[in-house]
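[step 3/7] inverse_fold.run input=structure_tokens len=342
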């Protein structure tokens, strides 16, 4: 078995701009055309469910926003967020793919590390969660210190010109409050209309780089192949619900999560900050499901881990894909179930 290493919206409406809805998103719109009103993804921590049509609408809005800002196919967008399991991130992942933009998830643990990543990646933009913290500092403070030119721009609208990061043009945050020189996520979304023909997305190339991490680069084609392999390993059918629990920093999470939803129509649930016991309670409602888990669902300490799920939840569990620091501990909890560690 090939092992894949860890890698690393929403109801608020942005301004409604009337741009053409001309996108050749290839396989990313397969299920949309077949069943637009089918539930696609649930975000437990945000109490939000998107249908296939809503998922397409929000990811397309992000894609058109990138085009309007000036991104071109092959440009890089850094993604610096504490959690990868919310609606904004999922829409950004799929939207970047539709716009031909290379998504670069980063997990900087200091300002100097973030600065190195900005410099080495030559990113055109960065999308980050401003209220996440490193020690005593919020991400927004670290960004302002790393890119001091933002302060002089005032409200967004002026082009960023950074001496240290000449490629960096756009800083976007997922928060609600104004940050000097930065765009609010919801204000970058462009909800297109079929009645107008102003913007268009590039032709979709499934073999083009899409997901970068260090020296590893993945195209949608690569991730689709990974999804197909994972579905076979875990005996997943189109009727299997997929729960993505913990911090989704792995290509396994994306391939079996959002990508599987748009490619194959599976219902995907992102459980957010729920621990393993909380996940077990909501799975009681499902008769056929699979789990994608990482170590954060059992905590970071090395204490004993117990599984107190009822029999019906375990009987309906088809398989478990596991990754992260405590993968072996989690695997031992699910004896008798098809489990794979990545």
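[step 3/7] decode complete -> sequence:
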């Amino acid at each position: 078995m090939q092992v894949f290493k860890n890698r690393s919206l929403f109801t608020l409406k942005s301004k409604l701009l009337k741009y053409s809805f001309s996108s050749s998103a290839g396989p990313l719109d397969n299920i949309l055309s077949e069943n637009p009103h089918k539930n696609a993804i649930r975000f437990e921590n945000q109490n939000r469910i998107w249908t296939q049509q809503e998922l397409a609408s929000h990811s397309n809005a992000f894609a058109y926003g990138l085009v309007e800002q000036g991104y071109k196919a092959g440009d890089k967008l850094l993604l610096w967020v504490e959690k990868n399991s919310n609606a904004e991130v999922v829409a950004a992942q799929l939207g970047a793919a539709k716009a031909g933009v290379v998504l670069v998830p980063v997990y900087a643990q200091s300002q100097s590390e973030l600065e190195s990543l900005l410099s080495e990646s030559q990113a055109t933009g960065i999308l980050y969660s401003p209220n996440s913290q490193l020690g005593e500092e919020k991400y927004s403070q670290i960004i302002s210190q790393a890119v001091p030119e933002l302060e002089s721009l005032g409200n967004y609208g002026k082009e960023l010109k950074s001496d240290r990061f000449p490629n960096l043009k756009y800083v976007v945050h997922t928060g609600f409050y104004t940050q000097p020189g930065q765009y609010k996520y919801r204000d970058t979304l462009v909800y297109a209309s079929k009645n107008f023909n102003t913007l268009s997305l590039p032709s979709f190339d499934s073999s083009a780089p899409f997901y970068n991490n260090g020296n590893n680069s993945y195209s949608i084609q690569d991730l689709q192949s990974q999804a197909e392999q994972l579905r076979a390993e875990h005996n997943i059918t189109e009727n299997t619900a997929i729960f993505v629990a913990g911090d989704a920093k792995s290509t396994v999470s994306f391939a079996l999560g959002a990508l599987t939803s748009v490619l194959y129509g599976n219902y995907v649930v992102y459980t957010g900050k729920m621990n393993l016991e909380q996940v077990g309670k909501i799975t009681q409602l499902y008769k056929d499901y699979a789990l994608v888990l990482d170590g954060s669902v059992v905590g970071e300490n090395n204490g004993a881990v117990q599984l107190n799920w009822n029999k019906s939840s375990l009987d309906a569990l088809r398989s478990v894909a596991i990754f992260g620091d405590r993968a072996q501990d989690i695997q031992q909890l699910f004896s008798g179930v098809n489990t794979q560690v990545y």
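[step 4/7] annotate
The chain has a mean pLDDT of 87.
The chain has two domains: 51-188, 218-341.
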